[in-house]
Structures are given as C-alpha cells and as structure tokens.
Amino acid sequence: MSRSSRPKQFLDFFGTGRTLLQQTYDRVSKFIEHDNIYISTNVQYLPLVYEQLPGVDDMHILEEPLRRGTLASVVWGMAMITKQDPQARVLVTPSDQLILQEESYQSDMLEGLDFVGEKGCLMVMGVRASRPETGYGYIQSAQEVGNGFYNVGAFKEKPKREVAEEYLQAGGYYWNAGIFIWDVATAKAAISKFEPEMADIFNSMAERFDTALEQEVVNELFPKCNSISIDYAVMERLGGKEVELNAKPSSVYVLPSDFGWSDLGTWGSLYTHVGKDDNQNAIIGTENVSMIESTNCIVRASGDIKMVLQGLDDYIVADDNGVLLVCKKSQEQRIKAFSETLKN
What we know:
Blueprint: H1 20-28, E1 39-42, H2 46-52, E2 61-64, H3 69-84, E3 89-92, E4 98-99, H4 102-119, E5 122-128, E6 138-146, E7 149-156, H5 161-170, E8 173-183, H6 184-194, H7 196-205, H8 214-221, H9 230-238, E9 243-245, E10 248-250, E11 252-257, E12 261-262, H10 267-271, E13 282-284, E14 289-292, E15 298-300, E16 307-310, E17 315-320, E18 323-328, H11 335-338
Parallel strand pairs: 1-2, 5-11, 13-15, 14-16, 15-17
Antiparallel strand pairs: 3-8, 4-12, 5-8, 6-7, 6-8, 7-11, 9-10, 17-18
Helix pairs in contact: 3-6, 3-7, 6-7
C-alpha cells in the first residue's frame, strides 16, 4: 500500500476519512497551538501536504529539497523555533504512526514537556513492549529519576527473535517510538557537540529563516548536510552517558508509556490493534470479504473488490491499486523485498 509516490503517512488505512498525517496533526493540535506546529517534508510530497493540510501556513511547512535524514529535518525545525523562542520546549513526532489512546498520549506528552522544561534535557518516549517484536528498536532503561522517568541505559537496534524474547522476559526494555521531547537550548548544544558541521550549516542560514529568501538558502546549503538520523547523531551518543552540555552534565531520559502505539511498519503490528471475528481474522477496508475455514488472517481489501478466502491460516492478504499480496504472516519481513519493483 505504501509507495514511494504516496507513502503510508498519506494513506487512510482504516477508512476513517483521515490519513495518518491528518490524524497526527489533529492529535497534537489539541494541546499545541497551530502557530507552533511545523511540518517537515520532502519537496516530492509538498502537493500531498497542501492537499491534506490546507489550513497550514506556508511558512510552517519546511520543504526539504532532497532527503538528508531526520537530523537535518529536526535542526531546520529547531532553528525556526529558536528564532521565535530560545527557551522553547519541542516535541518531535513522526507523522505515520497509529495512536489509539489519545487522552493517554496527550497526558504523557504534557508530562514530558513539563519534565524537560524543569530539567533542561532530552528525552524519548518508550512504549511498553507487549510482544517480542523484531521490527522495532528498543530502549533499555537504567535508574529511575522520579515521577516515572528513567535514565536511558542504551538504545538497541532491531533484534533477532530470540533477543527480543530476552528483552521481554528481562523487563526494562521499551519500543523506541521515535517521539522525542527536549528543550531547544539543550538539543542545539548536543547537535553542536556531536554534529558541528550540521550546526554550522544551519547557523549560517539563520538570518534568512522566516524571510522570502529562506527556501533559496535551504536549497543551496541543505545538500551539504550529512545524511543521518537524529537517533544515531544524538540520542544514541547520549544513551547511557553523561555529557556536559550548556556547562552542565546532561544525559537522555525515557518515559515508559502505553497509549496504543504502532508505527504500522508491519502487518503484524496492525493486526494487534484492529478488531477480529470469532476465528481471529482481522478485515480492514470493506465488508466484501468472505472468510471460509480461515483463521488468524489479516485482510485489507479495497472497496471495489470482492474476496472469498478459503483454507488460510495466519496469512496476510492485501490489495491496493491493482496489486495483490498474499503472504504468510511469519514471512512479512520479506515483503519489502517482494514489493521492491512495485513501489512507484
């Protein structure tokens, strides 16, 4: 379903009339003023952003001329925010995630914003693991620092199944949702320390931010930025360490949370969050699906097709835009390879 021309943040997976991008904007705008929300996107997707968020001011849509990873996106956004308020607290969130418990989400985000405001630090949201998931990175917590917050002991890459099972059994390991909260001064100091060249590039642009010349200078200098994620560039370098930032010791913290999160990166993660029939089949998108002698399947059918599925157990069946996928759930990590030639 997710193609290079229309990735998952621009899709309405559940037929609600709102895409994941629109749901994200709706969610954060309940506790953050519209004038304080910035959207970072590649130039390729600018028409989709304008189409789906028509009320957003042009100056709040940051148009990246090419892909350079999440660090460059975040640094540009923070530079814009710093110009307005050098003491700002910042929430960085992906736009392609499912959040089912929005009240819990809002409560946790506000708690995190209060925490970084008081402490002057960086933190990450950790999602309590409910299964040995191999499709997510993990955050290992260390000592508790009060009010449910912990020092981060380490960031862990996506594990093999047996390692994920060990994490679940040991406890203290949380899924990395890629949701970060920090005060802008500490974040800028961390970026200057770990990625000084990136910091220098954006500092040189600062005078032209929020002016008619902003996009021109971004188009000129953005390609000079290293292609790296905020995770690798900053968060993982701080995990389990104490580093001097702004003339004081600083580390990264985690708040374990449970707000019905999924990054929808796998069909298995989607399966856990949707309703099922008596045979544990999850059907999404249409009522025109007949399951006969089939169990434990997830089926996503477009509205203009009818399906009869017989004798399947533990399968993924999905059709979209003239493409049909039938795959064992246990093999879904191979779907990217299967569909590589179809992403257009």
